[in-house]
Write a structure and sequence with these properties.
The chain has 513 residues and is α/β, with parallel strands linked by helices. It has 16 helices and 19 strands. The strands form 4 sheets. An 8-stranded mixed sheet has the order 7-8-10-9-13-17-14-15, with helices on both faces. A 6-stranded mixed sheet has the order 1-6-5-2-4-3, sandwiched between helices. It has a 3-stranded mixed sheet with strand order 11-12-16. Helix 2 crosses helix 3, helix 9 packs across helix 16 and helix 10 crosses helix 15.
Length: 513
């Protein structure tokens, strides 16, 4: 696996030559706040001749320090009341880029300890940000056989958190590989195979559904999306089922549905005017969930059961493509009228959630999630942030606020959106023939409440609507739209982030490191 291991370093003497490190990367809000006197003095003297010191990431010649290299990466705007821990991530990335360019192979990361509660996980977030910066795409790795830039990254004063960080990075790499790889290399069968290979000997229960008869019986909406792909063997749909069960007593259960639309042409409602480019990233939800399961399989936390279903399908065009106005009965037994074939992700999720709902009904303290690059509307509303839309059961339990709090601490901020009665009215029995409408026939980005009302569809199409606050068996459900946060950088070909893997992990772990 393309991974740089993070190593816990307890002794401040590691900043000096002879301790195995060949560069010191300091991430600090203020030169005066640097704990190590040798670094502080050197940086202070350097600032007298170079005003960039403390303003932008800078390499200093530092005889006596590790590798003779000192890189000062300032954290900008940390005192601003609207800043979050991502300012530390940004500084760390800037510093590690310089270390790589300078030829270092084993840099030591020194992150200022802040008393500000916003930054209590700044060291961990900074270390993970280095992994995000250093990741290279699977296509490039397979084409050029490149190796990681560093043999290791030391994290000074990390309090034995390297096990967690390396497990997270392993999951993130899997998620980035799955999300960011082009649609032929990571077609649905290849995506499933890559998961199976990455998770072999993990202790997870793994099952891949590939037979058409079983898929059409149990995932009818998913198969409608993939109908035109069945005649191309390398594009045929798959459903990957994953399960982690801790040893000993189980006291809570988490169930995840991941949207894995390998490529979204728009189907019969074909994407035009260049709108199809970048749609190989429409599998970010399934990728993030797969990465989460990888991390859990390494950490092996106690007391939990985690169930995941990944719906992998190509929304192809062709003579057998599904079209608007078709009525298809979901796995949950709901008649669904297709409003737009380019609103395919919610169809995939509805069948997955229906299966998870049935398992949740007999599970211990279940929480149900869907994770998907679902709408352009969420990008229009929130830019690069994840939107969380929850049902009333989850809202009353404070699930969304808890997740948002965790996300803020770990550098994956969420925006909370509320479901309204209008959202359910938008999809209910529009024709008067009793079916549920999957979507309107316009782009979500210009549709009022374009990322909220799909959650209403998911609730009713999956059967989760039967498990509201007044039911005999209420089930908390949260839908995470990651269309804006699944990638960074270039709008079409940006680097996958694996978001919201860390937030979901910390939620599953109870918010503890």
């Amino acid at each position: 696996m393309f991974q740089v291991n993070i190593v816990d370093v307890a002794n401040d003497q590691a900043i000096f030559e002879g301790h195995g490190w060949d560069a010191v990367v300091v991430v600090a809000t203020d030169l005066a706040a640097i704990a190590q006197d040798e670094i502080k003095i050197l940086a202070k003297h350097a600032k007298q001749i170079d005003q960039r010191i403390g303003q932008s990431a800078t390499l200093l010649l530092a005889p006596g320090l590790a590798g003779g290299r000192l890189i000062v990466a300032p954290v900008v705007n940390a005192t601003n009341e609207y800043s979050d821990v991502s300012v530390f991530a940004k500084a760390a990335r800037e510093g590690i880029v310089i270390a790589k360019a300078a030829g270092a192979k084993q840099p030591l990361l020194v992150v200022e300890t802040s008393q500000d509660k916003r930054y209590q996980f700044a060291k961990q977030v900074a270390a993970l940000a280095c992994g995000q910066e250093l990741w290279q795409s699977l296509e490039l790795r397979e084409a050029t056989a490149i190796t990681p830039a560093f043999s290791a990254i030391g994290l000074l004063g990390s309090d034995n958190c390297s096990g967690l960080l390396n497990a997270v990075e392993a999951g993130k790499i899997l998620a980035r590989d799955l999300c960011g790889t082009e649609p032929e290399r990571m077609a649905a069968p290849s995506f499933a195979d890559y998961c199976v290979e990455a998770l072999k000997d993990s202790g997870l229960a793994i099952r891949v559904i590939e037979e058409r008869e079983e898929l059409e019986r149990d995932y009818p909406l998913l198969c409608a999306v993939g109908r035109a792909s069945f005649n191309v063997p390398r594009h045929q749909p798959r459903v990957v089922k994953l399960e982690y069960v801790a040893e000993g007593a189980i006291d809570r259960t988490y169930l995840f549905a991941g949207k894995g639309v390998i490529y979204d042409t728009g189907g019969a409602d074909i994407k035009v005017a260049g709108g199809m480019a970048g749609m190989s990233r429409d599998k970010g939800g399934a990728a993030a969930v797969a990465g989460l399961m990888k991390t859990l399989s390494i950490l092996k936390p106690k007391g939990i059961r985690v169930i995941a279903e990944l719906g992998l399908v190509r929304n192809s065009i062709g003579s057998d493509a599904f079209v608007p106005d078709e009525i298809i009965t979901s796995h949950g037994g709901v008649r669904v009228r297709i409003g737009n074939t380019d609103a395919e992700g919610r169809l995939v999720l509805a069948d997955l959630l229906s299966h998870l709902r049935l398992q949740a009904m007999t599970a211990i303290k279940p929480q149900v999630f869907s994770v998907a690059t679902l709408t352009g509307h969420v990008v229009r509303c929130y830019g690069g942030y994840t939107a969380l839309v929850e049902n009333k059961v989850a809202q009353q339990a404070g699930m969304g606020h808890t997740l948002a709090g965790i996300a803020e601490q770990w550098g994956e901020p969420f925006e909370l959106s509320s479901l309204r009665h209008d959202d359910f009215a938008k999809v209910h029995n529009i024709s008067g023939q009793g079916e549920l409408l999957s979507s309107n026939n316009g782009p979500s980005a210009i549709t009022a409440r374009g990322h909220q009302y799909p959650a209403a569809f998911l609730i009713n199409a999956s059967g989760l609507g039967q498990h509201g606050t007044g039911s005999a068996m209420p089930l908390p459900f949260a839908h995470l739209d990651i269309a804006g946060s699944a990638t960074e950088g270039h709008s079409l070909y940006g680097k996958p982030t694996a978001s919201p893997l860390v937030t979901l992990l910390q939620s599953v772990l109870g918010g503890n490191v």
